[in-house]
Amino acid sequence: MTAAQRLADLRARIRHHEERYYVLNDPEISDAEFDALVAELQALEREHPDLVTPDSPTQRVGGRPVEGFAAVEHGVPMLSLDNTYDEGEVAAFDERLRRALADAGAEASAVEYVAELKIDGLSISLTYEDGGLVRGVTRGDGFRGEDVTSNVRTIRAIPMRLAEPVAGRIEIRGEVYLPRTAFDRINRERESREEPLFANPRNAAAGAMRNLDPREVSRRGLSAFMYQVIGRPGAVPPTQADTLEGLRRWGLPVEAHWARCRGVDEVLAYCERWREARHALPFDTDGVVVKLDDLALREKAGATTKFPRWAVAFKFPAEQATTRLLKIAVEVGRTGAVTPYAVLEPVRLSGSTISQATLHNEQEVARRDIREGDDVVIEKGGEVIPKVVKPVLSRRGADAAPWKMPETCPSCGSRLHRPEDEVVWRCVNTACPARLRRSLEHFASRRAMDIEGLGEALVDQVVRTGLVRDFGDLYGLTVGQIEALERMGPKSAENLVREIDGSRRLDPWRLLFGLGIRHVGERAAQALVGAFGSVDAIAAASVDALQAVEDIGPVVAASVREYFDEPRNRALVARLKAAGVRTAGPKAPAAAAPTGLSGRTFVLTGTLAGLTRDEATAAIEAAGGRVTGSVSRKTDYVVAGAEPGSKLEKARSLGVTVLDERDFLALLGRK
Ligand code: IVH
Fold first, then answer.
1. Has this prediction a pTM greater than 0.70?
2. Which of 74, 76, 78, 80 should be mutated for ligand 1, with most atoms under 8 A from CB?
3. Can you give the CATH number for the domain in which 521 is found?
4. Band of the pLDDT at 194, cuts 50, 70, 90?
5. What is the CATH number for 225?
6. Distance (Å, rounded) from C-alpha 641 to C-alpha 126?
7. Is any ligand 1 atom within 6 A of the Cβ of residue 119?
């Protein structure tokens, strides 16, 4: 055998075992045997570097991080699907479709469907040329996505070369997702590093796909399922069932539980079967996708401006449970926002035990008439923290009284304030111990001053004992003082002092971010330090000068100005500087690669549950977008909250993309 033959043979064997493991979940050899094959291939490729091919399994993870993702136009737009929420709506879809087919002159009495599980991930488009994977592109806005080839190649379920020869160019679409076990592992790791947790596997997968470092993406453990082929007529199988079988033969991952359904009744039975059964699957599904099986008939059915007429998504209802609301407590955030939450009698929901749920704000509690002692329905949507949906009024005790927001801060006792146009009450005492604790946790967090070891428990102690009253005090702490605290020894005290010392030398944008100025996230902090060179220069800048910085909008600029207008805050920065914390240059790295939002315009309408208009505006601006007041053809997105106004109608009539709160947060990459 020549070296080239041995290489080809090894690569084929490795792909076979990758497929057994990552696609079929049915490995034939042990991990150690697999690793040995890869090691053999690596060694042989080192001997023959000229014989390394781009589709070799050793080429999955590139050498270094990429600079950014290029925009790519989709040859065929990636449409989304119309959603249905009950049997009646699915039946109506079936009727509409059969009518459209009849109108188009097609025989449409017994329509056949394929029902597939709706994978809760992100859509992806793969391009293979002469059987080799050449490109992976995200859906983006449906018309343009981002070239994430370097990340797609790290997904072991996706073959670098198709198992059967397919000549020419072919596009394959499907969904990238994060298996639940990988999601749990990632969140455990993040928890131990005190990083914010991902709300759900979908957000974690989206975060991974946006990562610029393929090595990091590879560690996340993404997977994929494919379901559509786009290519020359003749190259595309004639039915959906043939497509799914063909994709499998090509070695691509296909979700195995799809079913062919004769008529809508079989479709409904499929939906019913998976409503509960889905919880046993190793990945998240949020519904069923119902597709016309015959692709020629699909052509006849056509599409509206947004959705194909030949398919529909049936969404499972969010899972709910009923339990007793023991108490409504409030917590104080680092900006002083005081928010109510429900303390619940522990109850099982979607595989975990729930003892707390969010209540958003005072108005929400009043609007839903939620009272202490009520039995309440709780729901887990796409968020980490479940929410209280409604009280069970028939079970309400006679003595249950409407809940009243406390008038004073539960931590420091000072009077709470609520600006006219806001729903959130705030503790405005900057020395409030609860605010101080949250602020210190943020200051010390990995993305800010990265002081390892200064977590919740220790923060609590240094605040309680009065050792730390502001960020400046951290830099005066001695080993002796820390050693004297509970559960601290000389070794951990020394480590902490070393960590604090190390934070003095970090890039100044981290300090600016760590100060916790409202609306100033990492990107804004980087942009500001990058433009002004020092925290002092930022503190002295006018609102206009701040706003002149790219990516800094009016809300962020005003918030920065307000922060530094406060003498106490200027004194704090002076103390930090005197303690040797770096407050000036070198300039921050250029802002991270633009997200899908740079240059995009947004219009907000209605009320969002999780954030105020200012916060939404700031988040859009921080991600490079712009918010305008009225909807026009140039508007990219309308974000519609509860009780939206006429802007929503206008958006619909102009065909502008409308996002609900969940889609909006996902677009921002938040929970
Ligand atoms: S078919 C023309 N099949 O759901 C649209 N989509 O709400 C073709 N999705 O954008 C999509 N699982 O990202 C299809 N088995 C499946 C799916 C699926 C998940 C996603 C996909 C799509 C979204 C529509």
1. no
2. 80
3. 1.10.150.20
4. low
5. 3.30.470.30
6. 34
7. yes
